[in-house]
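For this section, I looked closely at the sequence of one protein beside the tokens encoding its backbone, which the following lines show:
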Amino acid sequence: MPSADVAEFVRSHPLFSLAERPGRQLRVCTGEACWDAGSDTVCDVPTEHVGAAGKAVAGVMWLRSPCLGACERAPAALAFQAGDPAVRELLAPATGASAVLSARRPLVRGSDVDSR
């Protein structure tokens, strides 16, 4: 695949980036099922406690995300911590408070949370 095609894909897909991002990220799903289940209110809490979406504050960035694939447990959020290995934590259903806590604390491998 030509590198120009790869770069275009990365630029057009919200889960990828050509710009450097901090090692800790929080993605709040704003897909249709999550939006209907209240992800807009989940987004309010990171905005208040972490800062504006897409802006790194103290090594953490949160972003609105397309579908994270947990529609049946909406709303969903995904915390990501870069490293070797990278660690992630899926919160579903997520609350604003659980999302902010997950974004700020060290993640442990295999720590997906099903908060049903």
